[in-house]
């Protein structure tokens, strides 16, 4: 039976595919004030601006390709039962071949009614104001905004507590509740952190790989392919 590897990924893993990271942009994302385009207040104030912003993000994602970090994690399914928990709203993990991906903050290629967050619909093009769901509500991106509940955090905790091996890639651990997930790891679990700037972590036993995601996952593969740790 394969050991369970839980991988928590953030924007840093998609940066090398050309998708900009919020943490590198001083509170602006592609020139936008993040709270104007990623909060319920912003949606109430100017929903068309929010739609335009996420329509551009969707185009960016569709134009991006998985990188070697994404494909490397997919390869690890040969050795481990790999469960990816990602803070990213892109689908690059899935396109790289990973089969078990939990999106904490939603998915840009899905949309939902502003009245109902449970029914999801695929979307590859633009969402326009006036595009209504069957329940009559305006369609919006299936993305968790600042100030909204992260409904996938409970399923993520259930995965984390079962980890036999844990890998953290490309996240600053500044966004909660996602950053608190590592607190649920068993103390004896081998833990690897891959980032070009290692975030501050509590506790011991972390194997630090201070490299960009593509180089770091290549090193991780070398360390792990000798056999489950």
Structure write-up:
The chain has 229 residues and is of the alpha/beta class. The chain is built from 8 helices and 11 strands. It has helices at residues 11-15, 34-37, 40-45, 47-63, 68-75, 92-96, 153-160, 213-224; strands at 4-9, 28-29, 32-33, 81-86, 101-103, 106-113, 116-122, 139-143, 165-169, 191-194, 206-209. It has a 6-stranded parallel sheet with strand order 5-4-1-9-10-11, sandwiched between helices. A 3-stranded antiparallel sheet has the order 7-6-8. Strands 2-3 form a two-stranded antiparallel sheet. A hairpin with a 2-residue loop joins strand 2 (28-29) and strand 3 (32-33). Helix 5 runs parallel beside helix 8. It is elongated.
Strand fraction equals: 15-25%
Overall 3D geometry? Answer: elongated
Q: Provide the gyration radius in Å.
A: 18 Å
> Which structural class fits the helix and strand makeup?
alpha/beta
Largest sheet: 6 strands, parallel
Report mean pLDDT, rounded to a whole number.
92
Subunit organisation of the chains: single chain
Task: Provide the low-confidence segments as ranges.
Answer: none
Strand tally: 11
Residues in helices, as a percent range: 25-40%
Distance between the termini: 14 Å
Enumerate the strands of the largest sheet in spatial order, edge to edge or round the barrel. Answer: 5-4-1-9-10-11
Number of helices: 8
Query: SSE string, helix = H, strand = E?
Result: EHEEHHHHEHEEEEHEEEH
């Amino acid at each position: 039976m394969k050991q369970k590897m839980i991988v928590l990924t953030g924007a840093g893993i998609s940066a090398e595919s050309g998708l900009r990271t919020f943490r590198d942009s001083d509170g602006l994302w592609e020139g936008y004030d993040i709270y104007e385009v990623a909060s319920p207040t912003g949606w109430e104030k100017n929903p068309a601006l929010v739609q335009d912003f996420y329509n551009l993000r969707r185009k960016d994602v569709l134009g991006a390709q998985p990188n070697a970090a994404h494909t490397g994690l997919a390869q690890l399914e040969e050795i481990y039962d790999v469960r990816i928990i990602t803070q990213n709203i892109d689908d690059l993990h899935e396109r790289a071949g990973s089969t078990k991906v939990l999106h904490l903050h939603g998915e840009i290629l899905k949309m939902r009614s502003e009245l109902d967050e449970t029914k999801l619909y695929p979307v590859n093009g633009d969402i326009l104001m006036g595009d209504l769901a069957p329940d009559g509500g305006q369609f919006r991106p299936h993305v968790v905004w600042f100030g909204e509940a992260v409904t996938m955090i409970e399923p993520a905790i259930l995965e984390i507590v079962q980890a036999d091996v844990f890998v953290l890639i490309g996240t600053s651990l500044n966004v909660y509740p996602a950053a608190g997930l590592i607190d649920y790891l068993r103390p004896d679990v081998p833990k690897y952190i891959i980032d070009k700037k290692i975030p501050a972590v509590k506790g011991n036993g972390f194997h630090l790989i201070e490299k960009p995601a593509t180089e770091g996952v290549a090193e991780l593969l070398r360390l792990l392919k000798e056999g489950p740790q």
